[in-house]
Amino acid sequence: MKKILVAGLLAMLAATQAYADEVKVSKAWTRATAPGQDSASVQLTITSKKDATLIGVASGSAQSGEIHSMVMEGDVMKMRALDALPLPAKTPVSLGEDGNHLMLIGLRKPLKAGHKLPFALTVKFADGHTSVIRVLAVIKPLETTAAEGHEHHH
Ligand SMILES: [Cu+2]
């Protein structure tokens, strides 16, 4: 009975959609890690019904998480950690496609394609209320290409 319940919950989570309060997260994915790689860029789309800000990312599978933006300094693309990322009401914000992305740093074990990476997003609403949204990112093969596929220099 308990096993069936857990399987059902995992199946729901496997859809990589999570709803908590007024926030929807979809299409969460990351790549399998290369040997020696201990950080991962997580890509997803997040939509809040109300004005909010994304203020944190964390995972039991990593030592820390950061919200990153990509900025050009001269002709070098650099990553900068953001304290908060605005989530305008009813506007899908695609992390990973516009230079902003989530980084999980200090992975406790390699990410394997076909597995799922659990993580949590902390969102703060305009009224000060915060909500933690639990998400599972699909781990795709290392060679997966995407328009946003950029080199990561930490
Ligand atoms: Cu980054």
Protein model, in words:
Residues 147-151 have low confidence and may be disordered. The protein is mainly β and 154 residues long. It has one helix at 2-14, and strands spanning 18-20, 23-31, 39-48, 52-58, 62-73, 76-82, 85-87, 93-95, 101-107, 116-125, 130-140. Strands 1, 2, 3, 4, 5, 6, 7, 8, 9, 10 and 11 form an eleven-stranded mixed sheet that branches. The chain has a single domain (2-140), classed as PCu(A)C copper chaperone (Immunoglobulin-like), CATH 2.60.40. It is globular. It is built from one helix and eleven strands; from the N terminus they run αβββββββββββ. Helices cover 8% and strands 53% of the residues. It starts with a helix and ends in a 14-residue tail after the last strand. The longest helix has 13 residues, at 2-14. The structure holds copper (II) ion. Copper (II) ion is lined by residues 41, 68, 79, 101, 103, 152. Copper (II) ion binds at residues 41, 68, 79, 101, 103, 152.
